[in-house]
């Protein structure tokens, strides 16, 4: 359902290696992944902060590019890791945002034609509001894991790399997040697992 | 389509729009470009950006007016960010608004047709990224300014925001990129301007809410207004945009200015952290000619000049006028 365009295809590792001699080559990596990183940040802390934090993500990445393993063709886990660290500093904003999803969805509902709004959609929206409220109460580690795997659709391996933790630790954090979601809200369906459809596409 | 969305899909899509606008990427581009520059300057102290004199001499090789657009007066009116709009700026902006109101409405983009827009862009100090792949560029016609990386951008926009974007670098040895884009990509074009209010205050509020994340930035608002002031925008909207600019705190008049294509107009400017966002337009026709950014060093660091526009029957044709 992603309607993104692959603006520039290529090998992140090679471009980052090239950027050590010609800094402008880093722009290829930035353009390739900007939309995805922006959406990740906006989803977590809102658009108001997304401009600044997405810019900060790529500036930090640029400054630290000499530490990137240039044998890796995909820099997304690395960039998601930097973005996650920046988002963590905004934990209060993030919790407020997720807790306020109910109001935001209600605003959206107010602009719709009720005769065209399906009952199933209304039910899904109510469930989404409840899930958002629970996500707002997850601890930081669980929320990071849930976001990267469920919303960003990273594989377990890539999400673990982004967070700098072993895959086993990531799995246990996800399991605890799922358990917490089940305890707090029983009827919104199973938390999606991304292991079977890891979206490795670029955006 | 609604019934197929799970609550998790809804959360992933969000109650509001998560897609970055062009302004978001432009900000990152600008910050990265500064980082590149400082990175380059550190190891090589001898490398420096072209001096003011170099730019003026280079400009003289082109049209004299082009140099006038690039040369920034040493003593610009300094509208502080919170200051009320200057009377001269208000007068010239209202003149453009009145001119727009006298014009006839243009037809909306019909299904199967496209709005064609051609712009000339330049960035001081090199491109944000090297363009690779694609076919060798033909003669682009982009002004060759010393120290600037230039390009010609042509877009064909359908009513749903899909279309085609072709970017031809000014450097003839560089390849052209040519991309088809899906619906919703061109989100700040005329396609969406019919959703904007016509009351200047409401218009300003809508731009801030929708495109600036709710956090008002007068320089950004001026830049968005420039984007929406495209030739095929509804005359009432164009008038409202000029009147809205006239309300922005800190806006000042630059007097007569000439754009990089040699067209004469007048300029208005807003300062932000030492940088100036400027708009050059023709108050008699209300046509917007060029947007530009001037750095704290007084040099133009970016320009975007609006050129040809019109409605065409396919994403392969250009207007004949």
Description:
The complex is a heterodimer of chains A (about 200) and B (about 325). Chain A contains 10 helices and no strands. Chain A is an all-alpha fold. In chain A, helix 2 packs antiparallel against helix 3 (about 45-65), helix 5 (about 90-100) runs antiparallel to helix 7 (about 120-135) and helix 9 (about 155-165) packs across helix 10. Chain A is globular and about 55 Å long. Chain B is of the alpha+beta class and about 325 residues long. Chain B contains 9 helices and 10 strands. In chain B, helix 7 crosses helix 9 (about 235-245) and helix 8 (about 220-230) runs antiparallel to helix 9. Chain B starts with 6 loop residues before the first helix and ends in a 9-residue tail after the last strand. The model of chain B is unreliable at about 40-80 and about 130-140 (pLDDT under 50). Chains A and B meet through helix 2, helix 3, helix 6 and helix 7 of A and helix 1 and helix 2 of B.
- The helix/strand class of chain A is mainly alpha
The proportion of residues in beta strands of chain B is: 15-25%
Radius of gyration computed on alpha carbons of chain A = 18 Å
Mean pLDDT across all amino acids of chain A: 77
Instruction: Outline the biggest β-sheet of chain A.
Output: none
Largest interface: A-B, 56 and 45 residues
What is the molecular shape of chain B?
globular
N-to-C terminal Cα separation of chain B, in Å?
A: 42 Å
Q: What structural class is derived from the secondary structure elements of chain B?
A: alpha+beta
């Amino acid at each position: 359902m992603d309607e993104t365009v692959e603006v520039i295809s290529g090998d992140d590792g090679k471009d980052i290696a090239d950027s050590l001699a010609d800094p402008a080559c880093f722009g290829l990596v930035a353009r390739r992944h900007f939309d995805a990183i922006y959406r990740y940040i906006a989803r977590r802390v809102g658009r108001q902060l997304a401009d600044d934090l997405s810019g900060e993500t790529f500036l930090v990445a640029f400054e630290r590019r000499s530490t990137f393993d240039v044998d890796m063709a995909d820099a997304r886990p690395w960039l998601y890791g930097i973005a996650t660290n920046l988002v963590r500093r905004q934990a209060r904003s993030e919790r407020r945002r997720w807790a306020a999803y109910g109001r935001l969805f209600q605003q959206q509902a107010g602009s719709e034609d009720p005769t065209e709004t399906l009952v199933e959609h209304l039910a899904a929206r109510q469930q989404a509001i409840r899930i958002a409220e629970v996500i707002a109460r997850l601890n930081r580690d669980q929320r990071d894991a849930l976001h990267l795997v469920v919303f960003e659709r990273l594989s377990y391996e890539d999400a673990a790399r982004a967070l700098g933790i072993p895959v086993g630790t990531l799995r246990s954090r996800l399991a605890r997040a799922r358990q917490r979601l089940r305890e707090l809200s029983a009827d919104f369906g199973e938390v999606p697992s991304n292991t079977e459809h890891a979206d490795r596409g670029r955006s | 389509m609604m019934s197929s969305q799970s609550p998790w899909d809804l959360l992933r899509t969000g109650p509001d729009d998560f897609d970055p606008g062009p302004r978001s990427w432009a900000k990152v581009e600008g910050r990265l470009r500064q980082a590149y520059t400082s990175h380059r300057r550190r190891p090589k102290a001898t490398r420096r950006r072209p001096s003011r004199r170099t730019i003026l001499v280079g400009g003289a090789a082109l049209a004299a007016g082009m140099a006038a657009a690039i040369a920034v007066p040493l003593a610009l009116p300094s509208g502080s960010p919170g200051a009320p709009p200057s009377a001269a700026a208000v007068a010239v902006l209202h003149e453009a608004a009145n001119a727009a109101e006298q014009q006839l409405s243009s037809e909306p983009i019909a299904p199967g047709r496209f709005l064609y827009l051609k712009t000339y862009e330049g960035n001081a100090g090199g491109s944000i990224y090297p363009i690779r792949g694609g076919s060798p560029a033909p003669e682009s016609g982009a002004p060759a300014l010393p120290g600037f990386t230039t390009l010609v951008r042509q877009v064909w926009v359908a009513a749903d925001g899909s279309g085609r974007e072709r970017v031809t670098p000014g450097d003839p040895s560089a390849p052209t990129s040519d991309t088809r884009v899906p619906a919703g990509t061109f989100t700040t074009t005329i396609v969406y301007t019919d959703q904007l209010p016509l009351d200047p205050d409401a218009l300003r509020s809508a731009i801030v809410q929708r495109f600036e994340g709710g956090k008002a930035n007068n320089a950004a608002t001026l830049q968005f207004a420039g984007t929406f002031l495209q030739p095929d925008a509804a005359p009432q909207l164009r008038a409202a945009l000029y009147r809205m600019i006239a309300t922005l705190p800190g806006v000042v008049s630059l007097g007569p200015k000439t754009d990089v294509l040699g067209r004469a107009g007048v300029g208005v400017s807003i300062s932000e952290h030492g940088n100036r966002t400027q708009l050059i337009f023709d108050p008699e026709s209300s046509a917007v000619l060029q947007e530009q950014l001037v750095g704290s060093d007084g040099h133009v660091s970016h320009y975007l000049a609006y050129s040809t526009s019109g409605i065409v029957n396919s994403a392969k044709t250009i207007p004949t006028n």
